[in-house]
Fold this sequence. Notes:
The protein is built from 6 helices and 30 strands. The chain has helices spanning 51-55, 61-96, 112-128, 164-169, 172-178, 183-189, and strands at residues 2-8, 32-38, 41-50, 101-104, 158-163, 191-194, 199-202, 208-212, 217-223, 227-241, 246-259, 265-269, 279-281, 286-289, 295-298, 300-302, 311-314, 320-324, 329-334, 338-346, 349-357, 366-368, 373-377, 381-385, 387-389, 398-401, 407-413, 416-421, 425-433, 436-445. It is an alpha+beta fold. Strand 20 and strand 21 form a beta hairpin. Helix 5 crosses helix 6. Helices cover 17% and strands 42% of the residues.
Amino acid sequence: MINQEIYVNPAKGRQYNPDDFAGILAKYESDVKVQYLIKNMDVQYPLTIIRTSLKSAFVSWEELDRYISSLTQSLYNGLYNDEYNYTKMLVGSAYNNNHVALELIANPTTSEEIAKEFVTKARSYYLNFQVNSGDYNGWKKAGGSGRPIITRTRPEDIILLIRNDIRSYIDVNVLASAFQLTSSEFLASNIYPIDTFSVFDYDEYGNKIEIFDGSNIIAMICDRRWFKIRPQEQYMESQRNANNRSMQYYLNCIKMYEYSLFANAVCFITEEPQIALTSMQFPQNLVTLTPNITKYISVETNPANSTSEITFTTENEDVISIEKTGSKTVKITPLKEGQAIVTATSNGISTTTNIVISENIISISNINFGTQNVTVNEGETETIDVSITPNNGTQTILYTSSNESIFTVEKINNTQISITGVATGVSTLIATTGSVTTLLNVEITAKS
């Protein structure tokens, strides 16, 4: 069974314009996000009881009935144990998949200074969760498209899952004060002690088996709604076998254990998860700015949850200054008019975007080649005029060849280019400015 969670982002306001009569005919899309959740716990707990065989071991029917009751109760105990582990594995899964905000910190039990740092950061997240932000949910980290999710959490819905060794080391009154609660209120409703975020089981010989290593997870602060635990069915079935005078009991439990990408959550960890990057690109090949505008640009990675370290560089430090502000985000500050290139690099993989700094920019809303196809002879050059809307647009256009082994392109000015045939074949000319992209099919033919 598949469930879905739907989130609608806050609408974006705009400046009122009394002369905008055409705006009534425009379409204003709502920003709707959807996460699909699946049923992932379908467990059956079986038990066979042969009453006549058991009777010989008991001195009364009452003792036998009490023993049989404890046997059937063991089915529920097995379920409760699994439910606890499934809940812990939600945290572990979000950490392993890098679908949750992470806070790297040393183990708080190693020193009083680190313990104070942990409490201070927990307090900071407690306060930040209560303010609208897109920094503490997993939508973007999980590869969600479009605008970031803007979320906030009511203070009474903020909970802390914390390992017992950490909790025993840090004064509970200090933790409670971080949540602006008395110690009794804090223990009653906002803290959930965890023995370990690792998950273990035992084989038939009593040997301990590690199912998930969660030793790198210290604690998690989150919105209660981050946990998406929904029962589907839970019922007991029994079947009498007259052949051997036994009873078969089956406790069935079907549940959904998922986490929400729309709720605030931060894991405190001692080590980052390792997810290698395979490719990346900037969403725009060209970004045009005026000298007084600062812009944040994020690189898109594959996989989206990659944890590989990305560095940002530019050789045009007289035109722009750059500052890495997130694992995949760079802040660009214009210094003067001109052009610059920003390069993102990670493990031998790189991508670039072009930055143009210009005064009095007039945005371009359309680029038109006047045709969808053009033919050029091999070894020859042809000049093409380009029309733009508005025709006085000053936003810089970037022209690129998708395959320079077939043809090359040279920009003469913003609305005129030259194409040179290199080898016979068909490829694409790409014209880009801001969010506008236009394609032209280019065929290179042999000279007749």
